[in-house]
Write a structure and sequence with these properties.
The complex is a heterodimer. Chain A is mostly beta strands. Chain A has no helices and twelve strands. In chain A, 0% of the residues lie in helices and 51% in strands. In chain B, strands 2, 4, 5, 6, 9, 10 and 11 form a seven-stranded mixed β-sheet that branches. In chain B, strands 1-3-8-7 form a four-stranded antiparallel β-sheet, with no helix packed on it. In chain B, a hairpin with a 3-residue loop joins strand 4 (31-38) and strand 5 (42-49). Chains A and B meet through strand 6 of A and strand 5, strand 9 and strand 10 of B.
Chain lengths: 113, 114
């Protein structure tokens, strides 16, 4: 069965520091991978997606993610975090059925001024 | 930009009431979804639809039904609301043109059942 794990429930970083959020997936075929961000009281916004080609993908708000098939990982990175990045981050993978998406449990990011 | 609009941001209803949550998307997307989001449980899929008048059960359909009479509108119905249905409800839509198409989300409806 498909699954997504995000090992870190909560991360705190200082403003200006670099960030890496971990995501591991379990899926037998070529995965379609997504990262979403959710600000408090809001819906989810797509940050970036991967489905083929270059394994390093660029997204909005200065985020990037790298697909590593050998590690079944799709980690999200940002070189310098801003206070406005404080939010919940969700990794997701497209499942076996045509349109079902499996979401990870989320990582909550706090940013210290 | 894709816009997914949920009719209410906050809703308070009473136990036993029939509750309707409405969702409209403006991008002619084939697929629409309803999730509920609870602390510690993440997003759980209730129902989805890949075409008008079509519906598929998700992971937690019990106590819910859906309606999709028009392509742009997908309604979630709580037949007889119960307190354990107090939650944040998120609607999403996506294009049917390929598995790489992402889901686009509304801002959510925070529903409280008293």
């Amino acid at each position: 069965a498909q699954s997504v794990t995000q090992p870190d429930i909560h991360i705190t970083v200082s403003e200006g520091a670099s960030l890496e959020l971990r995501c591991n997936y379990s899926y037998g075929a070529t995965p379609y991978l997504f990262w979403y961000v959710q600000s408090p009281g809001q819906g989810l916004q797509l940050l970036l997606k991967y489905f083929s080609g270059d394994t390093l993908v660029q997204g909005i708000k200065g985020f990037e993610a790298e697909f590593k098939r050998s590690q079944s990982s799709f980690n999200l990175r940002k070189p310098s975090v801003h206070w406005s990045d404080a939010a919940e981050y969700f990794c997701a993978v497209r499942g076996a059925s045509y349109d079902k998406v499996i979401f990870g449990p989320g990582t909550s990011l706090s940013v210290i001024p | 930009d894709v816009k997914v609009t949920q009719s209410s941001r906050y809703l308070v209803k009473r136990t036993g009431e029939k509750v309707f949550l409405e969702c409209v998307q403006d991008m002619d997307h084939e697929n629409m979804f309803w999730y509920r989001q609870d602390p510690g449980l993440g997003l759980r899929l209730i129902y989805f639809s890949y075409d008008v008048k079509m519906k598929e059960k998700g992971d937690i359909p019990e106590g819910y039904s859906v309606s999709r009479e028009k392509k742009e509108r997908f309604s979630l119905i709580l037949e007889s609301a119960s307190t354990n249905q107090t939650s944040m409800y998120l609607c999403a839509s996506s294009s049917g043109q390929g598995k790489h198409q992402p889901q686009h989300f509304g801002d959510g409806t925070r529903l409280s059942i008293l």
